[in-house]
Amino acid sequence: MQKSFIKGIVIAVGGFVFLNCSSVNKVKSKSDVPSLKEAFKSDFFIGTALNTAQIEEKVPGAAVLVPKQFNAVTPENIMKAEVIHPEWNRYNFELSDKLVAYAKKNKIVVNAHTLIWHSQLPQFVRRIKDADSVRMFFNEHITTIASRYDGQVYSWDVVNEALNEDGTMRRSIFLDKLGDDFVVEAFRLAQKAAPNTKLYYNDYNIEQPKKRAGAIALIKKIQAAGVRIDGVGIQGHWHINHLPLKDIEESILEFSALGIDVMFTELDLSVLPNPRDIVGADVNQRAAYEAKLNPYTAGLPDSVQTQLAKSYEDVFRLFLKHKDKISRITFWGVDDGQSWLNGFPVRGRTNYPLLFDKEFKPKPAFYSVIALKSKGK
Ligand code: XIL
């Protein structure tokens, strides 16, 4: 009887130890995945764009991953004028307030995006014909939103995408009705409304020499007017076959010589064939679907996966080289399933541009980026 009692205890203890080991292992295998924000904590903020479902924590995978991996978030759409300011006298702060609360709860900073942009404008603004009404929208929009979130968000992209590829000012309702100085004016209003918020200019392809020169001239103009600008965001929508490393490095040096922070604010690396004539990230550009433009619906071939990992390694090596000048790297999305590149510039494709796959698992590119820190490469 004693024997079987002891045997029982041995089995029970063994079972307990076994169970315990397996649960420890489970926990261990989860925490075995390193954290980007931890790995780069002495270098720069590591951010991600969040969509509505993610802000509302309706995506379980993202709800677990985001606080673990990122210490900065950018709203992918909800702070754009068409969402936050749908009618003349109506603002919709519900989702932005949720974002701020979510970030606070998780000790994450919010990089608000964006006050003045020609795209994703509400209908009422598109219909305005006279300059006075555009001016009124412009003043009220910036002042109301920037002051509401001052001290709640870390930064604002005050103006997004004001430049053409050749460095000249892009035609838009703001340029047409308010003239060349609208960018300076936007920063002046933001500075008044949000004295505790960092103010940035954000654009794509401004690592390219001509557009970069336009951005530098614009930033100098803001500074010469005695208006505050704290940083510049290079969006970073690139392609694994055309990663412009030399231009990126020159841009980091030239922008930081202006005495402002440099950030990469919307990083993703497309792996899909580029339809003809489309460069950069002009959200209004579209191309028709063709099967040959969507080759990886059944999964990413190892060769491309490896190239993606190598491209991320190369660009992060460069970021680390200039970490004293770079304050943040933000990915444009948490996981491949969410990426806007599944719908842009061709709808209905399967792209793989981020560090986490659509099951929220880290990809080889994630490990190649992390390895730069762990091996001190
Ligand atoms: C994109 C969003 O990701 C999409 O969901 C939306 O349909 C269009 O805009 N440059 C920017 C971002 O500054 O705001 C854009 O985001 C991508 C290009």
From TrEMBL:
Domain of life assignment: Bacteria
Active site: 266
A GO MF label: endo-1,4-beta-xylanase activity
GO biological process terms on file: xylan catabolic process
UniProt KW keywords: Carbohydrate metabolism, Glycosidase, Hydrolase, Polysaccharide degradation, Xylan degradation
Pfam families with a match to the protein in the record: Glyco_hydro_10
First-tier enzyme category under EC: hydrolase
EC annotation from Swiss-Prot or TrEMBL: 3.2.1.8
Protein name from the UniProt record: Beta-xylanase
